[in-house]
Each structure stands twice: as C-alpha cells, then as structure tokens.
Amino acid sequence: MAQVQKFGMNQGCLLVQSASHYLAHIELFEYKLEQQANIHFSVNEPSFFMYANLNQNSCWLCYRPAGKYQETIASGAHQLLLITFRPDWLIYKCHKMEELKPFTAFYRNAESAYNRLPSFDIAANLFNALQKMDAKGSDLIADADGYIFINHCLNKYYRKLAGQNPTHNYHLEKAAAIARFVKENYASAMVDDLPKIADRFMVSERSLARLARLAFGIPLHEQVINLRMASAFSLLSTTNKPIYEIAQLNGYNDPHYFSKAFKKYYGILPKSVEKTSKKLSVQEKITG
After folding, report:
1. Lower CB density within 10 Å: C or N end of the chain?
2. pLDDT tens, 64-118?
3. 12-26, 136-150, 168-182, 247-261 — which is least confidently predicted?
4. pTM of whole model > 0.85?
C-alpha cells in the first residue's frame, strides 16, 4: 500500500494503509481495541463503497449519502478493507449488471438514505488477492495492477449477488420504500409503531427488520434515532428555538427524556449546543 498512518486511541491503536487509484480509493484498517469505541465522521459527497471484514469473512457493497455519521467499533483485533469507488465508474460498470441497477439508482435520488446490499463470505478471498499483490511488489496505484484488483473485488461480489434468489430486486425496492417512509416521518410517532409499519408495507415484523437492515445497515429504531439527533443538533446549532420545541419537532414529547437521549448520543447536553447557537445568531446580526 502507498501510505501508512498509525493513530493512538484511548482504547487502543489503529494502523491505516491507503492507496488511491483513478477508479477507487483503497484503505486497509488494522486495529486492536481493549473496549468498543464510538467514532464520528463526515461524508462530503455521496459514495459507493465495498466493506470487507476479515474476522467475519463478510463483505458488503454499500451506498452512503453525504452527511454526519456515528459508528461503533467492536473491541478486539480486526482487519477491515474499505474500497470507495468513483461513482461515475461504478454506475457505468453496473450498467450491464442487472442485479445492481436498482442499487446504483440511489445515487441519483437526493432523498436516498444509507443502503447496504447483502453480506457474502468473500472477505478472505479479497484479502488474499491484496496480499498476493503486495508479495509480488505490485503497485495498486499503477493503472494495470489497481484496475485488476478493483475489478476482481467488484466481480467477485457480483457473482455472489447474481446467484441469489431472483426476488432480491423486489426486496431492494421494498427497502427503498421503507427508507423513504422513515426519512419523511422520523419525527412522527408512526415510526415507533413497528406493527403498523409492517402492516403498511404488507410484511411481517420479522421481514420488516430484515428490510430495514437492508435499507440502513442498522435496525430501524437506530436509524430513527440517527435522523432525530442529526435534525435536533442542526436546529440547536442554527436557530434560537427552545429545547422543548426542538424536542417536539423531532419526536420527543418529554424534553427531559430528549436531553438524556441527546447526551447519550453526542456526549453533551442540548443546552451546551444552544450556547453555540446564540453565538452564531449574534455573529449573523453583526455580519448581516
């Protein structure tokens, strides 16, 4: 790999090796944590990426829209491979891959939420291919070597996906519909009533849980919390609305419960963000 960075963390250490090719940016993460850790990060533009976990021998193809995110990293020793594809190339590549056409449509839809396709047991194969290239002294940045490896990863995943049940496209469409519903109604009590949501989409609660994971990569209630907290933080940062009103606007009737949930999510109380809001409003008046 071309670049190597090592980071020290309270819970352990993280080694990141990365290389950029004109088709994708490739990152290999090796870390060892004594306890699980939460990380916050931003995605500046919509992205397609492949995520492979060697410990689980699992690999996913994912889409993530621009925004702020939080992820929980499990404790222990892990090796992860992340390949972030150039969107226009992946869309072109998938044009002849029938099972991936609905997936690439997420990129053109401004309302699309995080989406993850099924996991397949090909992570070990991808890591082996990467290790063989390193052993030969191949350069991933070089056009030929990088092109072969990136295409190998995508084609390997696609062959697994294409061998699935033909109802997969139906599940993708159903998952996309659920994602739209949650994004439009996350502040409503409707999204807290799983039986009614299941009835609305004519599926069982068990199927709803599977479709939600397909749509978001996480359980439905966690996606609702992510949307509510992101909206609340934005309102606290950019408006002078009182906390109780912001709580109500984001599905919390009890402002005290909202404050506890907000602190659990961000590590600070809403009133701490509100102070920043007032500074922003003063600055706006000065510069306006």
Report:
1. C
2. 888 887 777 778 888 999 999 999 999 888 887 877 877 787 776 666 677 788 8
3. 136-150
4. no
- The answer regarding whether domain 222-287 maps to CATH 3.40.50.620 reads no
What DSSP string describes 19-70?
EE-SSEEEEEEEEEESS-EEEEEEESS-EEEEEEETTTTEEEEEEE-SEEEE
What would the two tokens of residue 136 be? 């030969």
d(CA 18, CA 200): 45
Q: Which part of the chain has CATH 1.10.10.60?
A: 222-287
Q: Phi and psi of 6, rounded to 5°?
A: -125, 130
Question: Counting every residue, how long is the chain?
Answer: 288
Alpha helices in the chain (DSSP H): 87-94, 101-104, 123-135, 143-162, 168-185, 194-200, 205-216, 220-238, 243-249, 255-266, 270-287
